[in-house]
């Protein structure tokens, strides 16, 4: 892929006023796209292509009094945005710019009876949001605050007879949950609580033989979203034909090592 | 013609309702609707609550609707009891409604906390909820929703931080806790006293974090024979407790606390659990291979009296491993954990100074390892340990002789720096170059 053009495009999506980055030129900045931009640049080792201080300023401006983060200036709060914030700042080595204790406290206030997490305090547990919350605690080195055995049990109960994983009890399996569930279990050091072989078969059955892409379920239309999570999931399962993927960042381990980041994995 | 503000707000509500009809899972539409209602001066919350009811009828698991409902509830504040009853109604409709169980858990601890006893849920309600789970389970044992709620109820007991063991040598003073505690906690609640004088020093986490279950105390007191060493620590409501150390060999002192892994229920709740155990056993007699019945029986046994039912619990976990193969790893680790707990009672009673796995089962992980942080000799040979456990060994701060002979290690990545004199790695599928690399940084003798 044309690396130069991609980097140039990202540079032109940064809003000079707020410091945030948008999905495309002329759009409003949002924390989601700011994260994607920072991840792509970190992988290219080209973080110099954006105004880093601007990004830090933008993230700091989104933190609320209770430690939560808005997604953009319109004020939607979600634990996804807490994860985006700490991921962005840790990739930039600027985690100290925000209040980490409050960030952690807000995430912990979203913990539920099943020891999982939802998008806001009071919201039902969901594997995707569990990944975001466990990831936040992994970056902030506060994995101790989890009820690891209870949470990991809930996560391994996501595996269905087909080998695939669902995101909540009594729901259908979907390939992207291979990532949300398996990455969380990896950070909890309990990835062996699911059956790797049948999950691998499920993931491979979701690959479209014509285009090579992956879909949510066998036979559906492939898309880039499920392709990345399919590949990353295979890496967690130990497939060595794919570069090692870091479970916290969903990025190549070599990038995480180069940046000298050490997201926490629980002891077992 | 310019529209008036109320009209503008109304049309926004109509627009979002139209969008939600098309896509009831749109983050944007729900969020915008919420914004309109908190922005306009005259919101009609009753209508909104009805809207939630309508959408929950269409899809009882839509978490957007449930979340919007708690937002509306926070504004119009119907009685919590009404909301609690709403979940009862939803559950009687369909016990498989996990979202309703979730919402119920929130209402329950708000409405009926056990203020006097310090437990999360008041006795009679705790019992009532257990009964409700039971009737759900009898309706359809393979529906998982109620089982998660039951696990939560079984865990809803008082949970205290306790001191596990302190060990003091000339080179190292370490304190292990039953769970992770913060630096602030050790700083403010723990005091080491030698010959009746409080010792000043600095607490260091053994993994280098703000929270840990093993803390190292750096101080300048010379540790020799004939000292009187105590730890004074603060438990609940400011009460102080003292743990005294005894000399176990020259220049070495150890103080062990009582071990306790048993959950403490109130008498009515415990009796309810015993009743339900009986029903489970009856069900099991008819259907011995039903995973959920067997798992529930096993968890009940462990919750009621882990020591008494230990053998039965372990046998059940082995059966579970074969009937629920997808989660074999979970049952294996649970078996390890409960076997280690069972051994810990004996080791602490007997004043054991060596950690050696003392039961017929092979262990697959290292739970509660901080309880053995005082041991100089740790024998983990002939087990099923894989390389993922290696970082956990960091709590063996007093270990001199460690055996990992005949395990399933495939790499030494993550092996912590410990002052070992001897490390036995024989009988593992390790790369000799990797072993040689740690030989270079390691002072002790490596057997491989
Ligand atoms: Zn998906």
UniProtKB/TrEMBL annotation, chain A:
Domain Prenyltransferase alpha-alpha toroid, which positions? 3-251
In the Enzyme Commission scheme, what number(s) does this protein have? 2.5.1.60
Its annotated function is as follows: Catalyzes the transfer of a geranylgeranyl moiety from geranylgeranyl diphosphate to both cysteines of proteins with the C-terminal sequence -XXCC, -XCXC and -CCXX.
The GO molecular function terms of this record are: metal ion binding; Rab geranylgeranyltransferase activity
Q: What is this protein called?
A: Geranylgeranyl transferase type-2 subunit beta
Entry annotated with the keyword Repeat = yes
GO BP terms, alphabetized: protein localization to membrane
Family in the record = Belongs to the protein prenyltransferase subunit beta family.
Q: How is the cofactor bound?
A: Binds 1 zinc ion per subunit.
Provide one Gene Ontology cellular component.
Answer: Rab-protein geranylgeranyltransferase complex
Which is an annotated Pfam family here? Prenyltrans
Q: Which domain of life is it from?
A: Eukaryota
InterPro entries reported in the protein's UniProt record: PGGT1B-like (IPR045089), Prenyltrans (IPR001330), Ptb1 (IPR026873), Terpenoid_cyclase/PrenylTrfase (IPR008930)
Automatic annotation (TrEMBL), chain B:
Q: Its catalytic activity?
A: geranylgeranyl diphosphate + L-cysteinyl-[protein] = S-geranylgeranyl-L-cysteinyl-[protein] + diphosphate
So what EC number does this one have?
A: 2.5.1.60
GO annotation, cellular component aspect: Rab-protein geranylgeranyltransferase complex
Family of the protein in this entry:
Belongs to the protein prenyltransferase subunit alpha family.
UniProt-listed InterPro entries: LRR_dom_sf, Prenyl_trans_a
Q: Which GO terms describe its molecular function?
A: Rab geranylgeranyltransferase activity
* SUPFAM superfamilies according to UniProt: L domain-like, Protein prenylyltransferase
Record protein name field: Geranylgeranyl transferase type-2 subunit alpha
User: What PANTHER family does the database record attribute to this sequence?
Assistant: GERANYLGERANYL TRANSFERASE TYPE-2 SUBUNIT ALPHA, PROTEIN FARNESYLTRANSFERASE ALPHA SUBUNIT/RAB GERANYLGERANYL TRANSFERASE ALPHA SUBUNIT
Q: Which PROSITE patterns match?
A: PFTA
This protein's record includes keyword Plastid = no
Instruction: Look up keyword Transport and say if it applies.
Output: no
Task: Tell me the function of this protein.
Answer: Catalyzes the transfer of a geranyl-geranyl moiety from geranyl-geranyl pyrophosphate to cysteines occuring in specific C-terminal amino acid sequences.
GO BP terms: namely: prenylation
Q: Which UniProt keywords apply?
A: Prenyltransferase, Repeat, Transferase
């Amino acid at each position: 892929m044309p690396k130069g053009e991609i980097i140039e495009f990202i540079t032109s999506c940064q809003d000079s006023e707020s410091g945030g980055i948008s999905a495309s030129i002329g759009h409003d900045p949002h924390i989601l796209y700011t994260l994607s931009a920072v991840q792509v640049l970190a992988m290219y080792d080209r973080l110099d292509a954006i105004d880093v201080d601007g990004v830090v300023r933008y993230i700091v401006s989104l933190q609320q009094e209770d430690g939560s983060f808005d997604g953009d200036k319109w004020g939607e709060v979600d634990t996804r945005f807490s994860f985006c914030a700490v991921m962005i700042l840790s990739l930039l080595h600027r985690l100290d710019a925000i209040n980490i204790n409050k960030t952690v406290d807000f995430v912990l206030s979203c913990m539920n009876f099943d020891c999982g997490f939802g998008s806001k305090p009071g919201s039902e547990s969901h594997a995707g949001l569990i990944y975001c919350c466990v990831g936040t605690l992994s970056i902030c080195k506060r994995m101790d605050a989890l009820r690891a055995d209870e949470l990991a049990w809930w996560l391994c109960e996501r595996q269905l007879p087909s080998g695939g994983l669902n995101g909540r009890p009594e729901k259908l399996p979907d390939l992207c949950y291979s990532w949300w569930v398996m990455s969380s279990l990896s950070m909890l050091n309990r990835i062996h609580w699911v059956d790797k072989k049948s999950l691998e078969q499920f993931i491979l059955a979701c690959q479209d033989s014509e285009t090579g892409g992956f879909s949510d379920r066998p036979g559906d239309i492939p898309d880039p979203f499920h392709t990345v999570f399919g590949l990353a999931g295979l890496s967690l399962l130990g497939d060595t034909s794919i570069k090692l993927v870091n479970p916290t960042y969903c990025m190549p381990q070599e990038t995480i090592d180069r940046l000298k980041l050490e997201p926490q994995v629980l002891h077992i | 013609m310019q529209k008036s503000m109320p009209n503008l707000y109304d049309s926004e509500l109509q627009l979002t309702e139209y969008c939600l009809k098309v896509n009831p899972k749109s983050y944007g539409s729900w969020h915008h609707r919420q914004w309109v209602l908190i922005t306009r001066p005259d919101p009609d919350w009753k209508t909104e609550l009805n809207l939630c009811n309508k959408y929950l009828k269409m899809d009882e698991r839509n978490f957007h609707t449930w979340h919007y409902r708690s937002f509306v509830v926070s504004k119009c504040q119907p009685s919590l009891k009404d909301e609690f009853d709403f979940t009862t109604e939803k559950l009687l409709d369909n016990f498989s409604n996990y979202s309703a169980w979730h919402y119920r858990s929130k209402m329950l601890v708000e409405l009926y906390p056990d203020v006097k006893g310090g437990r999360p849920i008041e006795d009679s309600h705790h019992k009532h909820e257990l009964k409700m789970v039971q009737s759900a389970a009898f309706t359809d044992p393979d529906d998982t929703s109620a089982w998660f709620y039951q696990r939560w109820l079984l865990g809803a007991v008082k949970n205290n931080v306790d001191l596990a063991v302190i060990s003091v040598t000339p080179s190292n003073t370490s304190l292990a806790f039953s769970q992770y505690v913060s630096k602030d906690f050790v700083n403010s609640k723990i005091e080491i006293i030698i010959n009746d004088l409080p010792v000043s020093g600095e607490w260091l986490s053994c993994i280098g974090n703000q929270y840990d279950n093993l803390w190292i105390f750096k101080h300048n007191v010379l540790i020799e024979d004939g000292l009187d060493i105590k730890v004074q620590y603060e438990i609940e409501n400011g009460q102080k407790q003292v743990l005294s150390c005894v000399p176990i060999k020259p220049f070495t002192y150890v103080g062990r606390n009582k071990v306790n892994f048993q959950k403490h229920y109130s008498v009515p709740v415990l009796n309810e659990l015993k009743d339900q155990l009986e029903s489970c056993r009856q069900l099991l007699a008819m259907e011995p291979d039903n995973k959920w019945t067997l798992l529930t029986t096993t968890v009940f046994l462990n919750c009621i009296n882990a020591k008494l039912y230990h053998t039965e619990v372990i046998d059940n976990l082995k059966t579970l491993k074969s009937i629920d193969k997808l989660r074999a790893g979970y049952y294996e680790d649970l078996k390890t954990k409960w076997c280690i707990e069972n051994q810990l009672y004996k080791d602490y009673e007997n004043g054991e100074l060596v950690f050696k796995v003392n039961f017929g089962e092979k262990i697959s992980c290292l739970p509660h390892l901080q309880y053995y942080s005082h041991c100089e000799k740790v024998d983990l040979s002939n087990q099923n340990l894989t390389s993922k456990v290696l970082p956990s060994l960091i709590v063996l701060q007093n270990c001199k002789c460690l055996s990992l002979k005949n395990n399933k290690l495939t790499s030494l990545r993550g092996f912590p720096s410990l002052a070992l004199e001897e490390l036995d790695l024989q009988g593992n599928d390790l790369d000799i170059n990797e072993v040689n690399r740690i030989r270079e940084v390691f002072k002790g003798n490596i057997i491989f």
